[in-house]
Amino acid sequence: MAIVSRGFRGRREADPRLPPGQYLERGFPVLSAGPTPRTDLSTWTFSIGGAAGPRATWSWAELTALPADDVVVDIHCVTKWTKLDTSWRGVSLDRLLDAVEVADDEQYALAHCDGGYTTNVPLADLRGGRAWIAYQYDGAPLPPEHGGPARLLIPHLYFWKSAKWIRRVDLLTDDQWGFWEKLGYHQYGDPWKEQRYWGD
């Protein structure tokens, strides 16, 4: 049986950037499935790999030394809040994926995080300037409660896909559901199509 929450109630406002069923949030709610991990940056790494193991790994110093993007994006939580014009800094997945060999039949990705959380996404959604490993929010280091030291940022999908405490992305030939997807959340999660839960 699926275990899902239909979300919080909030005030709906008329704004063309609000997807259907969303309300405008001016704060930044903290929602997590478990305790907040605390990571030692001297041992932190991020990897891109696959079934055979890591293909490329970056230390914290190596990742943050890469050319970074400053992006301003709207974010949409499955619990129905939307926060507009959020400011992030991070390394594009395009740049990181360019460092590894990707097979033609690897069309899916599974993100792995501290705390055991996983989420799935088509590989195409990590490319084309649409996804980042974000390590700053609003001009400051990303706080642990919001996924720091680094989180996946995929703003065109519901925010549970922007996995907190990211450590690895595996490239796969088949789509493997992640933590919330197995518990009833939609496999893809397009906020403009209200793809919140199984059957949406």
Detailed description of the structure:
This protein has 3 helices and 11 strands. The protein has 200 residues and is mainly beta. The protein has one domain (23-28, 44-193): Oxidoreductase, molybdopterin-binding domain (Sulfite Oxidase, Chain A, domain 2, Alpha-Beta Complex). It is globular. Residues 1-12 have low confidence and may be disordered. Strands 1, 4, 5, 8, 9 and 10 form a 6-stranded mixed beta sheet that branches. The chain has helices at 60-65, 93-97, 179-182, and strands at residues 23-24, 45-50, 53-59, 69-76, 81-92, 108-113, 118-122, 132-137, 140-141, 151-153, 166-172. The longest helix has 6 residues, at 60-65.
Instruction: Give the SSE string.
Output: EEEHEEHEEEEEEH
What's the CATH architecture? Answer: Alpha-Beta Complex
Fraction of residues in H or I helices = under 10%
How many strands, what sense, and barrel or not for the largest sheet? 6 strands, mixed
Please give the count of helices. Answer: 3
Rg value: 16 Å
Average pLDDT metric? 91
Shape: globular
Low confidence ranges: 1-12
Percent strand equals 25-35%
Report the CATH topology name: Sulfite Oxidase, Chain A, domain 2
Q: Can you give me a brief rundown of this structure?
A:
Residues 34-180 form the Oxidoreductase molybdopterin-binding domain. The protein is mainly β and 200 residues long. It has helices spanning 60-65, 93-97, 179-182; strands spanning 23-24, 45-50, 53-59, 69-76, 81-92, 108-113, 118-122, 132-137, 140-141, 151-153, 166-172.
Write the layout of secondary structure elements.
Blueprint: E1 23-24, E2 45-50, E3 53-59, H1 60-65, E4 69-76, E5 81-92, H2 93-97, E6 108-113, E7 118-122, E8 132-137, E9 140-141, E10 151-153, E11 166-172, H3 179-182
Parallel strand pairs: 1-5, 2-11
Antiparallel strand pairs: 2-3, 4-5, 5-8, 6-7, 6-11, 8-9, 8-10
